[in-house]
Amino acid sequence: MLAFAHLAKKRDDASADEPDPIAEMKDQAARILSKQQADYDNANEPSGQPVPRQGEITFVPMVPGVTFSPASRTFTWRKSVHREEFDLWAAPDQDGQSLSGQMTVFLGSLVIAEVPLRISVNSRAESSAEKISLDGPQSSRRLRQIFASYSHQDEQVVAELAQVAPLCGSRFLMDRTISSPAKIGAKDCKRLIRGADMFQLFWSTNAMRSADTVDEINYAVSLERPGFILADILGRASAAEPG
Fold first, then answer.
1. What three-state secondary structure class fits 145?
2. Which of 15, 62, 94, 107 has the smallest number of Cβ neighbours within 10 A?
């Protein structure tokens, strides 16, 4: 289950290239759920009072017959869009039932919203993303979308990796063998980074001196996505720590 807390509109002091909060929330949901989005219901409820920045928000889902892991999620309200994820499962005796409950949202210890939840339990359900039509053409599974950040001087190395990436189930979004950097503005670049499943940094002395690469890294870090940034340094892959 995906749970979002988002502003109804951009803050007055937001930068010009900051996306609309609702559009960004929908973009994140579409990116994560992909073709399975049709299997998910959308439920929302406005907050009963203003939420201050730095306020502590807690999501607590409760549906009788359903176990959520973790039982709650707590975060500090800083960004225009916050996303939390829950695993869930139902007891076997709930199979075939439509279960109802709610997501209670707390500001500190104060309840500020109660979002109704409805979960259909069906052990034989088939995801819409897995349904096969014999009447139409078939498409392959979705490739993992990777934003490749690198210096133009390292283009040959990255181009070679881009050619073999589909064999590993991946596709580079910022592959300069496909898209010329001169045709991609900063706003489009940020859109590609937001839409990626992973930010792959190809770090080198060339990249260190590239202002564009540094800007891409800073924006990727600002998204605060756990495990989103990876680095390849002289052929050795390692996790990149924000900072």
1. strand
2. 15
CB crowding 77-102: b at 16 or more within 10 Å, else e: bebbbbbbebeeebeeebeeeeeebb
Per the CB < 8 A criterion, the answer to whether 202 and 150 are in contact is yes
| Residue 175: partners with Cβ closer than 8 Å, 6 or more residues away | 148, 158, 159, 162
Rounded CA separation 15/134 (Å) = 48
Boundaries of domain holding 20: 2-120
Q: Does residue 191 sit in helix, strand or coil?
A: helix
In-domain check, residue 132 = no
Which tens digits make up the pLDDT trace of 64-92? 999 999 999 999 988 888 889 899 888 88
Look-up of token digits 């503005």 = 185
pTM exceeds cut of 0.90 = no
